[in-house]
Predict the structure.
Amino acid sequence: MTHPPYPTHPPYDEQPQRPRHSGHPAPDPAPAPAPAQLTYPWQPQPRPPEPPPRRRPRHQPLGQHSDIRLLRGAYRRQRRVATLTALGYFTLFLLLSAFAPSLMTSTVSGGMPTGLLLGLLQVPVTCLAIWLYEHSARRRLDPIADRIRRQTDLDAKREAAR
């Protein structure tokens, strides 16, 4: 004999059946009115009304604009190059310190250890990464950003004129 895994209960809307006593018939329950709101959260929700159709703009919205995608890609490449320049040199310095201690303790001219010289070179390499970031921003990113700015100003003037 198998039992159901969970006890079954009548739905909340229904009243449980009362046992009939002899001589007193139970009144028939009236059908319950339809609930104004849904009883269970997993019942399908009614769909909201469709919004009225809007007039389509003459050009693409700014978030979908091809110049925006170009600018995002250029910023991404620029960040990667500058970060890899600075962090790459520092990682190289750490790896040489850990795995080539004889190289790092050898002396360069004047008795200065190679490790100290490479550590001091971290400052100019970081400055080079900053200069590279600024230079490529002026050359590649600023013209695209200016073009987007002009287009946005033009769009705002057109909207104000309407």
